[in-house]
Design brief:
Length: about 190
């Protein structure tokens, strides 16, 4: 005898077999500049291209510091022009590492802020995002990797640059337990990096 289904999201018995529960997690949030900045920083740490960029900036800063130190060992003492050039280059390296994600995050936020509240539904099919003027469906092959921060889940495209990202702020869930449920869905359908 067939048992009636209570809901498509509930587990049920059909012809004696248990159907696995396939519940979705819903989020509702207003994007912030901090979300965008955090997502860009997380992508930088999680992708090969982002890590390479970080190493290049770090190596440049080390070279500049080396040149700065060498200028103090010259017989005539440090040259004012070399000192100013080294300090400017060092400031540029620090700015590129610290400020660039913040500036890019503000630009991204300015683009999405007029959309108001976003709603996301995450399930075994993928992620559906809805805002005032758009509705987008990302299936798992398109966003096959993710990383987690204290405040966000950042889903990324499979290319080495992680060009496409989907940002899911943890504050958008209705219940604290949904953060873990969301992580479980991500673990089943995407690779954590």
């Amino acid at each position: 005898m067939r048992a009636p289904l209570r809901s498509p999201l509930d587990s049920a018995m059909i012809w004696g077999a248990t159907v696995q529960e396939t519940s979705a997690v819903e989020l509702a949030y207003v994007p912030t500049s901090a979300d965008a900045t955090g997502a860009l920083r997380a992508r930088m740490r999680a992708t090969p291209a982002g890590r390479l960029q970080s190493w290049i900036i770090l190596a440049s800063a080390i070279v500049v510091l080396g040149a700065f130190a060498v200028s103090f060992t010259l017989p005539n003492g440090p040259d004012l022009g070399v000192t100013v050039l080294c300090l400017a280059a060092l400031a540029l390296c620090v700015g590129a590492y610290v400020l660039m994600p913040a500036l890019q995050g503000r630009q991204v936020h300015r683009m999405v802020a007029p959309q108001g509240e976003f709603r996301a539904v995450v399930d075994d099919i993928g992620v559906r995002l809805t805002s005032r003027d758009s509705e987008t469906m990302h299936r798992w092959p398109m966003i096959s990797r993710y990383t987690e921060t204290d405040a966000l889940y950042v889903l990324m495209t499979p290319d080495k640059y992680g060009v496409g990202i989907v940002v899911l702020p943890k504050r958008g869930v209705t219940e604290p337990a949904d953060v873990d449920r969301l992580r479980n869905i991500l673990d089943q359908n995407a690779t954590r990096v």
